[in-house]
Design brief:
alpha+beta; Structural Genomics Hypothetical 15.5 Kd Protein In mrcA-pckA Intergenic Region, Chain A; nine-stranded mixed beta sheet; 7 helices; 13 strands; binds uracil
Length: 239
Amino acid sequence: MRLDRAAAMAGLTRSEAKKAVIAGRVTVDGAVVRDPAAQADPCRVQVDGAAVRSPGEIYIMLNKPAGVITATEDGRLPTVVDLIPPELRRRGPGPVGRLDRDVTGLVLLTTDGQLAHRLISPKWKAEKRYRARCEGRLTEADAEAFAAGIPLSDFTAQPAKLEILEAGDDFSLADVTLTEGKFHQVKRMFAAVGHPLAALCRLQIGPLTLDEALAPGEWRMLTDEEIEALKTQCKMSEE
Ligand code: URA
């Protein structure tokens, strides 16, 4: 990362950070570096003698409300990162995968790039579970279609598990579990079987389950056990 960007993690604006670098207030491994464009690991950068980022990764679980964008910044709308306090935001966590603006539920925010990559890469097959409310009565034929792999206009979805929780004439409720995460995929799969979605909420990413105590918009740090379970899922514990 550029040194001025790393220095900004101390709570400075980008232009204040640049000036601080040029003024010699910023060190990398204890040595003053005055080039704002120099590359530096933020864990090794200090501004006025204070570390900008504590060593170690951070892992945050967030219950995303509708209307919030899954991104680190957006010019117009609130993002998931806006929901965490500035001192955590400055450490640079990003969301793992994306939820659509109207979709709610579990978002994992982390600085751990390798874990993030593995959780979204189809290669590591981390399952994501969603609670879906859809129009019309779901039947076992729909569950069979999900299990067979639903053909969409540009690809055929990998087999997915559809667990019907309630089936009514107007609406049905189901849990769907899949390993892929293509654009609007769950919405498209339900629409393809004639049951457009009314609401979608992500409940689980691999072994990580949304904490029911978190109201929409609330977050908490992951426990050591949850972090370990995610790393085991992604075969990172053995490396
Ligand atoms: N599938 C969707 O259609 N939207 C999401 O946000 C996530 C999965």
